[in-house]
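C-ALPHA CELLS:
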Amino acid sequence: MNARKSARKTERFHQIPIFSNLGAGEVARILAITETNTIAPGTDIFEPGAPADGFYIIDEGRVDIRMPTEKGDDVTTIATLSDRSVFGEMSFLGQRPRSAFATAVSETRLKRVQGPDFRALLDKGDVAAYKVIYNFAILISSRLRRVENELLHVLERIAPDTKEEKLAELQQFRQTLFQEWSF
C-alpha cells in the first residue's frame, strides 16, 4: 500500500483520543492487530465476568455500558457511546474480568484491538503501544474527574445538610485509592 493511501486510511483515526498523538505508521501498526465486527442491536459485546481479551473502538453505531446493581437483580446504564469512542480498556489494562455489560444499541461496527497482540507490541517496546497506554491514562483520568464532579453535584442536590460528612467520606475514599494503588 502506498504512503498516501495508508495515510488516508489512518487519517480518521486521529480523531480518536487514544490515537491523537500517533503518526500514521503507528496508527497502522495498531489497526493491524484489530478485527472488525458488525454487532446487531441488542447483542451483548461482553458481560460481567467475561475475560478482558482486548479493547474496542466504535467505527459506527452506539453501545450502552451497563453496570449490574449490587444485588445483581438489575442493571443501570452508565454511558451510551458512539462513533470513535473506546471502551473495555479498564478491564483490559487491569487484567481483570469485565465488570459491566457492553450492548449494541443500534447496528454497530467496531474494531477489537486484540489483547495478546497489543501486549506483544508492548513487550517489543513499540512506541505506538506505549503512546496508546499514555492516552488511556489521560482518558481515564478525565473520566474520573467527570465522575467526581458529578458526585459533588449530586451531593449538593440531595444531601445539603450532610454535605460535609459526605465530602469527608469522599476524601477518605480518595486516600484509600492512593494508598492502595502504587504509582
